[in-house]
Amino acid sequence: MKVLRKKRRKYPVSRVIVTIAKYSILCIGAFCMILPFFWLFSASLMTSQELIADPPRWIPESPQWKNYMEIPRRIPILRYYGNSLLIAGLGTFGVLFTGSLAGFAFAKIPFPGRKILFRFVLSTMMFPVFIFLIPVFYLMKNLGWLDNHLSLIIPFAVSGYGIFLIRQFVMTIPDALMDSARIDGAGLWKIYLRIILPMIKPALATLGTLTFIGQWNSFLWPMIVTSNAQHLMTLPVGVSRLTLAFSTTETQHLVMAALVYQVIPMVIVFLYLQKNYVKGFVMSGFGGI
Amino acid sequence: MRRDMRLRALSGYGFISPALIFYVFFFGFPVIFSFAASFRRWNMLVPLFDARFLGWDNFEFLLQNEMFLRSLLNTSLYAVITVCASLAISLFLAVLINSARFPVLWRFLFFTPVVTPSVAIGTIWNYLYRPNNGLLNQILGWFGIRPVYWLTDGNVVLFSVMLVAIWAGIGGSMLIFTAALKNIPNDYYDAAKIDGAGIFRRFFSITIPLIQPTLLFLMATGMIGAWQVFDLPFIMGRNAPAMSIMTVSWYIYETAFGSMRMGRASAGAFLLFIIIFVITLLILRAFRKGGYEGFAEKET
Question: A148 vs A82, A155, A221, B158, B191, CA distance in Å?
């Protein structure tokens, strides 16, 4: 009570109205954000009758937890998980490895053409993926990688943004640190392993989280590559096929459960690594669909 | 000493070589190959240089094709409206959240769609948008609004998809705006207040100019992304008349992997690149070093 009175004395009535308006806008916004997710979860527990009921139901009468049991029986969801994990994991490793090597060189090792090459790396971010789809698909086909995880990993093993981000971080490491290591007789490779890598851990964590989530969610390329290779399908592709296959049958309520399977890991990863991700996102400015 | 310098330069190349080799195969080669393919009639079954050379025919075909022109129109509408709307909404929300309690909670709520796969987002909204038994029409019904055919009405479907894209996109830009807003010293606002500037005056005379680099960066990257939009229209637009929802990237995808016209699709991809390039240049030019380059070279 005391606090409230104090506040009222401090703020005039117009201020109170502004505050109420502010929080109501935020609450309406939050409601719009949450509603689809709430409905997804609710619908994943419905029977197929409840899902197509008119007027629509908001919550199931009795939650059908068995929908979740049904999914692994209908589609190889574990394999999709495995593929997504392998592809996103190795792809992330590739981005971190090549990015930290190149970022280190661009930041600390003078060599002729460094500036031009770095500008080139930045400019690659402006090219639409559609220029690459066909030639890279053709390349993969001729290399015989199309029925192989490599076709989903290698084309994403370097990111211009990753190189840029790591370079910015390495620039902040004082030269003196490197110089003293060199006086002690350490080569560049040793400096990279012993000094640079440990010091850019935060950047690696950020870039790693960002890359992993991006690759886990990617859709277009995996869809093109795995159209003839079921055993390579990633989670988004597998679930999207399921959506199309189930939408006309009586089993469409299973789509919702399958989507929950797909959404949950990322929400958990996001919750767990929120700080990294948010930081990386702020630094990158990339996102949206 | 000279030998040392040369050795360092060499090892510099050594460190960037994994990335460089990658760029040769997955950037240099594709760009040149796509360019060469765009002048040919090629179905990927024969080697590219055995395919018939067409000159500018692919480009001519596209620029006279009604569907492609419609896809250009749809995509430009989509890009301009989603980028502008989501920037405006997210800036507004960022200003609110910046002065609200529990900023982390709000941020989390608005950010969740950003980490959700677009396939999942599209499918969820397909259900919410159902004409008779979708939640959205039910909610509209409470206010006496008649059911809208969100995804089947050719006049509506593009806007339905844009709405979802805005919904999914505001969290990301909001986060970046919040960071930018935090960098503005409070003194500026206090000084303006003393001078009698109202809330709108303060917003347009202090906030906007000071976050301009962020705004432009988001606009440039947003445009680059929005012009390539594929997932959402592809998942949500299946039951609509193709003309009303076809985007450039979907058109290219269909041309390439639906009808195996790789040459024509490459020509489309190059047209898309030119559009994106020009738009990015225009945005950067208009504001000189404010946006992307300013961001990229901030610490150079």
Answer: 14, 13, 14, 37, 63
pLDDT tens for A106-131 read 999 989 999 999 989 988 888 888 89
Contact B123 A243 (CB under 8 A): yes
Flag whether residue B186 sits within 8 Å of chain A, measured between CB atoms: no
Q: Which of B101, B119, B166, B215 to mutate to test the interface with A (most CBs of A within 10 A)?
A: B119
Nearest CA-CA distance, residue B293 and chain A, Å: 9
Q: CA torsion angle for B119, B121, B124, B128 (degrees, to 10)? A: -130
Encode pLDDT of B237-273 as tens digits.
Answer: 988 998 999 999 999 999 998 999 999 999 999 999 9
Q: What angle do CA B152, A128, A164 make, to 5 degrees?
A: 130
The Cβ of residue B295 has, within 10 Å, a number of other Cβ atoms equal to 21
Tell me the C-alpha distance between A255 and A40, whole Å.
Answer: 10
Mutation pick from A20, A131, A142, A190 vs chain B, by most beta carbons of B within 10 Å, is A131
B299 → closest Cβ in A168, A220, A278: A168
Task: Quote ipTM for the complex.
Answer: 0.85
pLDDT tens, position by position, B115-152: 898 989 998 999 899 888 889 999 999 998 888 999 99
Among the partner residues A133, A157, A285, nearest to B218 by beta-carbon distance: A285
Specify the CATH number of the domain A69-284.
1.10.3720.10
Q: Tell me which amino acid residue B270 is.
A: F
The pTM of this model reads 0.87
| Per-domain residue ranges of chain A | 11-67, 69-284
Domains of chain B: 59-296 (1.10.3720.10)
Q: Mind giving me the DSSP string for B129-178?
A: T-TTT-HHHHHHHHTTPPP--TTT-TTTHHHHHHHHHHHHHHHHHHHHHH
